[in-house]
Design goal:
single chain; Porin
Amino acid sequence: MKKIILILIIGAISILTVSAQEQDKIKKRITYSFGADIGIPAGYVSNYSSLVAGASLQAEYPAFKNLGITASAGYLDFIAKRGGKGVPFIPLLLGLKYNFTPKIYVSGQAGMSFYAGRDNGDGSGGGSGEKYFTYVPGLGFHTSKHFDVLFKYESVYIASSSRTYSSAGVRISYNFNLN
């Protein structure tokens, strides 16, 4: 008899737990954003680039109360000084976003960037489609329900030439839900 009661209690707890998790899933909606990126080159790359510009799309899944999982894709161009050819990348990143308050958060992403230009023979980038390790830490602010400002440092590491394409910049984004 004790075993039957124990099995019923465990079964009831399991059903309530699954039901609570299903309720949580209903409330959790993915937030999408698209943004404009602009920055100032840092380190080696500042010798030939004066501006970094691009755009990105991002999705955020709220995994826990204050923690979200992010995935993003974008286009980032290290624009050359004096009309030369820039160095463009397509970053694909995964990361985490932690909300300290409803208005302030930190984020960190890492992944790969694909070289989107042609090899110009000077070692500034690989051939089209080459991929490089990328990381992006940042501090952000929710300025309103739909707008966000992220101050970030983005770094693309090219192992074959031991060079890093880095920038300090800002991403201004519009956030929305599809439901």
